[in-house]
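Hey, I was hoping to borrow your eyes for a little while. I've dropped the whole record in just underneath, so have a look:

——
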Amino acid sequence: MDLVVVQSLKRNNTLNEVRNPFFLRLLTAWRSPLPDVAVEEASWYRLAVIVLFPVLLLMFTAILFLGRWSASHHLSWLSVLLSVSLLPLSCVAVVAVVQAFNRKYPLRERLCLTDWRIADFFYALLVMVVMLPLIGVINSISLAVFKICGWKVADPALQNLFRNSPWSVVVILVFGAVVLAPLAEEIVFRRIIFTAINSKFGTTAGLMVTSLLFALVHDCRAQMPALFLLGIAMQLFYLERRRLAASITLHACNNAFAVGMMLLARINGWDWVFEM
């Protein structure tokens, strides 16, 4: 991208941050153009989606199986490690192949992983302060609807794993949830899948489809509306901050809060946490 254009975009973004409140920018971020090289390399992202989609299905199946199996069997740390590493390793492989065939842009710029800022952490906390009560209300409504309709509410696989697995497995789950999952899922959903759909069908379609896929792969039927909303929030945060580092930070903060609650619940015997 031309240096003059880059400098002009940075000036416009700075002026936008000064003139408009953060949440107004966040809610209107879907109208923003994609950051940096995404539009120019859309064909590469569409190819990556084709390769990674079967991996998403395989990861979903593995975690679903382990979650159900853990309720009555002890799992080895190796089986859990392989399951939580499936998407990150596949993501690394796909990105490495793309980078090997096309070195026009550095890897960090291609993935929009440049410019990590401490301010993103505080903005992420601000989003969480607003989102957590809203997610709690939506989950409560969703669970009430399930009970009224007589639908079975199965415990999410990850909750089963945290509740029933030995501590050696729990340590791997914590690392996977707080470090591996935010990094890999944001690259796959927010960067690769969103860019591929956006380049073909527009921002709204990209936002909706990406958030729906994000909700589906987490195996939480009753929590799906809340996960869908969370996916939208992460996508808008990426578009507003114009760097993937921001949405990775938000994702990691959200997962750290959820993992922290489940660890406290397991240590103190708070079964009500796992039933939320």
In short: The two ends are 47 Å apart (CA to CA). The first helix runs from residue 3 to 19. The chain is about 80% helix and 0% strand.
